């Protein structure tokens, strides 16, 4: 008996370390606890708003619009919010969002007690709360990497899911009881008060600020950079497509939960809260087990099983009129929902370096919750035109079929990638930056000498290097071969100005160096490939018109950026 007991003890200790390790960091624990309280308020508010709509406008499409109005702002605003989170202080962005939601919730509470809420004003207020959530989400999620080390990131994301779903377990049930006893305005009041703790924690947090001498990107440029990075990152693209499909097909239970409680099970507000709580119980189970599942199985396998499981649970909800069976199905659905979404989220975050993680998380939220918002209303229309059970059956079947997407778009395993910057700022670069900030466009050329027998393999290696260069901001990338010297290949690309050239230069990660080395391995010349940094000048420009372009120190200073060709 000793050996099994010892094995069980070791397994338990390993599980605790893998799952609960982020709680060792004080700021993560403080934000997690305050967020838990805020999540309770948010879930109670959702119950109040959804149930109020069943009396103000009881048609399925109007009830479904409550969920859609909450998630639609995430689709519309997340990219701008993600760019803001990457450009500015994430703590300040989070504070602004929380204060905004506090004010909106307070006004909704007052109007609720005065009896002045109409169906469309209720949707307007839930939309505004969703706006605050859209602004807050990317800053909060991208700040997790500043609260815990990278090795704890997967567990921290799962614990954040756990916090939300602990609230989901009891919050809706409490909300149902509260609405039944005191009416929806009481739910709105509780939500208003729940923001105060998180605001206090954010005010007290002294967030570490990375050192940089580069000016921040403007909003439109930053948004375009994020879209380009996601488009040219195959792993992130796979997550985006899979997340969007999961949100599109899996939104029925979210949107139609009040009608499942009222029409299929035959209950009231309390039943709705209990069913929502059952979903939350399953979500807690999923959050507690998802980290261990990802350590044991691939991300792809975890998502496939979770997606199929959620589809089966949706079919169970459609077929059941028995309260216990529906609850069991929703427990299973909650576990699958959180496991899939946390895996998507972890994959995006671990596939992105810190400088762009706010934007990639925001793009993920946009496509996933955009699908959730759009189809929340569409599934309501399907239920209205056909039947509630038909909408649920259709959604469940399509979720099971969507598992086949994994064959074409498998999820990556990026946890072992080193996405730290591969270069550091030198005093010489900082001095050069000050002199050449307004110079440009900048043209970089790299000369490779490759044996003819290796030319085809070199071209394949350069295809991947091209993706990396363009992903990080290089423009008009070309690869040319000299007609007179066929072994000579010249790589050429542009940056709009010196600031963007330096910014692109320092976006390269340690993991990118492996791709650069594969291309450099084909070079057969004496010494490393020759790198040139050229400033474009207008043909009629007066001497010194571009300022730093005529700086006599430019050749030696720009050569320092080449670092034997591999630094560029």
Would you write up a description of this structure?
The chain has 21 helices and four strands. Strands 2-3-1-4 form a four-stranded antiparallel sheet. Helix 2 (26-56) runs antiparallel to helix 5, helix 5 packs antiparallel against helix 14 and helix 10 runs parallel beside helix 14 (357-385). The chain is elongated and about 85 Å long. The longest helix is centred in the N-terminal third of the chain and has 31 residues, at 26-56. By secondary structure, the chain is mainly alpha-helical. The chain folds into two domains: 15-204 and 215-408, MFS general substrate transporter like domains (Growth Hormone, Chain: A, Up-down Bundle), CATH 1.20.1250; 427-562, Alpha-Beta Plaits.
- Determine the N-to-C terminus distance: 60 Å
Which outline best applies? elongated
CATH superfamily of the largest domain: MFS general substrate transporter like domains
Beta percentage is 5-15%
User: What structural category arises from helix and sheet content?
Assistant: mainly alpha
Q: Helicity range of the residues? A: over 70%
Kindly report the spatial arrangement of strands forming the biggest sheet.
2-3-1-4
Class of the largest domain in CATH? Mainly Alpha
In the CATH classification, which architecture of the largest domain applies?
Up-down Bundle
Q: State the low-pLDDT regions, or none.
A: 546-567
Q: Which assembly state applies to the chains in this document?
A: single chain
Write down how many β-strands occur, each being a DSSP E stretch of 2 or more residues: 4
Cα Rg: 27 Å
Q: The biggest beta sheet, please?
A: 4 strands, antiparallel
The H/E string reads: HHHHHHHHHHHHHHHHHEHEEHHEH
């Amino acid at each position: 008996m000793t050996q099994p007991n010892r094995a069980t003890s070791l397994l338990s200790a390993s599980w605790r370390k893998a799952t609960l390790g982020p709680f060792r960091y004080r700021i993560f624990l403080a934000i997690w606890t305050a967020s838990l309280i805020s999540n309770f308020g948010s879930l109670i508010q959702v119950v109040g708003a959804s149930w109020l709509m069943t009396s103000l406008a009881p048609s399925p499409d109007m009830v479904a619009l409550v969920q859609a109005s909450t998630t639609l702002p995430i689709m519309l605003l997340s990219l701008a919010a993600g760019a803001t989170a990457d450009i500015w202080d994430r703590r300040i962005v989070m504070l602004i969002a929380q204060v905004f939601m506090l004010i909106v919730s307070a006004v909704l509470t007052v109007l609720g007690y005065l009896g002045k809420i109409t169906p469309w004003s209720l949707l307007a207020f839930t939309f505004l709360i969703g706006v605050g959530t859209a602004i807050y989400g990317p800053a909060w999620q991208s700040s997790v990497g500043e609260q815990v080390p990278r090795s704890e990131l997967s567990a921290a994301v799962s614990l954040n899911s756990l916090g939300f779903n602990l609230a989901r377990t009891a919050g809706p049930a409490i909300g149902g009881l509260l609405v039944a006893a005191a009416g929806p305005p009481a739910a709105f009041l509780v939500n208003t008060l729940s923001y105060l703790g998180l605001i206090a924690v954010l005010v007290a947090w002294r967030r570490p600020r990375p050192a940089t001498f580069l000016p921040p990107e403007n909003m439109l440029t930053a948004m375009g950079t994020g879209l380009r990075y996601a488009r040219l990152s195959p792993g992130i693209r796979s997550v985006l497509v899979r997340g969007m499909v999961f949100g599109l097909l899996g939104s029925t239970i979210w949107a139609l939960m009040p009608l499942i409680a009222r029409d299929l099970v035959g209950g009231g507000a309390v039943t709705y809260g209990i069913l929502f709580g059952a979903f939350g119980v399953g979500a807690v189970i999923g959050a507690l087990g998802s980290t261990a599942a990802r350590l044991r199985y691939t991300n792809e396998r975890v998502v496939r099983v979770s997606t199929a499981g959620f589809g089966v649970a949706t079919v169970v909800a459609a077929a059941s009129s028995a309260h216990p069976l529906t609850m069991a199905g929703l427990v299973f659905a909650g576990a699958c929902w959180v496991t899939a979404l946390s895996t998507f989220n972890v994959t995006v975050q671990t596939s992105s370096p810190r400088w762009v993680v706010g934007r990639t998380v925001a793009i993920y939220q946009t496509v996933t919750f955009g699908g959730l918002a759009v189809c929340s209303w569409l599934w309501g229309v399907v239920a209205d035109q056909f039947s509630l059970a038909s909408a649920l059956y259709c959604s469940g079947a399509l979720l099971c079929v969507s598992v086949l997407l994994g064959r074409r778009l498998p999820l990556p395993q990026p946890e072992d990638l080193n996405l730290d910057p591969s270069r550091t700022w030198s005093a010489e670069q900082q001095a050069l930056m000050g002199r050449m900030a307004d110079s440009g466009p900048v043209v970089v050329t790299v000369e490779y000498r490759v044996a003819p027998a290796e030319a085809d393999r070199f071209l394949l290696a350069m295809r991947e290097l091209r993706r990396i260069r363009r992903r990080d901001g290089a423009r008009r990338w070309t690869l040319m071969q000299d007609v007179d010297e066929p072994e000579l290949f010249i790589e050429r690309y542009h940056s709009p100005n010196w600031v963007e050239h330096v910014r692109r230069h320092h976006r390269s990660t340690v993991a990118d160096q492996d791709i650069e080395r594969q291309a450099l391995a084909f070079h057969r010349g004496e010494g490393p490939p020759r790198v040139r940094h050229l400033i474009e000048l207008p043909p009629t420009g007066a001497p010194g018109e571009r300022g730093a372009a005529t700086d006599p120190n430019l050749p030696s200073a720009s050569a320092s950026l080449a670092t034997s060709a591999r630094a560029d």
